[in-house]
Q: What sequence folds into this?
């Protein structure tokens, strides 16, 4: 479903600011895998997601989605295959458009050109049913401008829009980090539900270790551009935060120093 083959990325190569962001990253997700990604600040997590979405191109290595090499495919062409939700609840939706218009846009994302984007009765019913899953009463506010919604509501809508067309890969980039704890929990639950409903192949970056343990069937830990730990499905259930911290110390010979990671425990 997704393969990263020896992905390298160096920023500002051969300058004083040179930074190895990704150092020979290999990762494979099978259909339906939900992998949570943790790691200290600057470990390369966002860079890895940017490679998969096509926002960045690797210096070397290949990215394969559904058996197709997409390494050189521009971001807009990959959007048919990839859904993404960012940390900022304002970034996934268009504030001056209504809920229905936003959903119509998301719905038409992987449709061939020439098909009409307008909303007929059947499609409106589909939008309403999809919104009901969120339990936020948005199904009765189809004509509300998205700019009027709360951060949590907008993030729920972003999530729904990103999963609407059942993407081959769903990328979640700290998508609950900017929300207060109760809203973050709501979005976490909606994430679980939407991913399970369509068995979406998902990669989720989080600084919250508990969330990384609670969600998904596999976990990876990154540090300094490398994947330093991979926890398989069979071992994930027995994993604890203490074990993860010990593993980091064992592998790196030092304590995990990321304040944000520790604060999120
Ligand atoms: N466009 C860029 N130009 C130069 N350096 C960059 C750029 N993007 C990222 N980096 C550097 O690459 C490294 C990896 O960054 P990345 O954002 O992927 O880390 P991260 O694991 O997502 O960190 P965080 O958890 O703090 O968001 C960092 O040292 C960062 O400063």
A:
């Amino acid at each position: 479903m997704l393969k990263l083959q020896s992905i390298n990325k160096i920023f500002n190569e051969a300058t004083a600011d040179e930074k190895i962001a990704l150092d020979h990253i290999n990762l494979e997700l099978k259909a339906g895998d939900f992998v949570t990604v943790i790691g200290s600040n600057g470990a390369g997590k966002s860079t890895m997601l940017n490679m998969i979405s096509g926002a960045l191109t690797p210096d070397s290595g290949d990215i394969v989605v559904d058996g197709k090499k997409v390494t050189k495919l521009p971001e807009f062409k990959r959007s048919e295959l990839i859904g993404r939700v960012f940390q900022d609840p304002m970034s996934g939706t268009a504030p001056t458009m209504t809920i229905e218009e936003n959903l119509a846009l998301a719905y038409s994302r992987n449709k061939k050109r020439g098909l009409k984007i307008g909303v007929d009765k059947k499609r409106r019913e589909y939008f309403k049913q999809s919104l009901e899953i969120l339990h936020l009463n948005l199904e009765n506010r189809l004509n509300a401008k998205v700019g009027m919604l709360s951060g949590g509501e907008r993030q729920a809508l972003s999530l729904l829009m990103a999963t609407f067309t059942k993407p081959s890969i769903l990328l979640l980039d700290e998508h609950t980090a900017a929300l207060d704890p109760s809203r973050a929990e709501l979005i976490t639950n909606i994430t679980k539900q939407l991913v399970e409903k369509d068995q979406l192949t998902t990669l989720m970056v989080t600084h919250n270790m508990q969330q990384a343990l609670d969600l998904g069937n596999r976990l990876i830990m990154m540090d300094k551009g490398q994947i330093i730990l991979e926890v398989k499905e069979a071992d994930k259930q027995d994993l604890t935060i203490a074990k993860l911290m010990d593993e980091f110390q064992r592998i790196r010979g030092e304590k995990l120093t990321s304040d944000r990671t520790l604060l999120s425990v």
Q: What stands out?
A: The chain has one domain: 2-263. The domain at 2-263 is CATH 3.40.50.300 (Rossmann fold). Residues 11-12, 19, 21, 39, 41-47 surround adenosine-5'-triphosphate (CB under 6 Å).
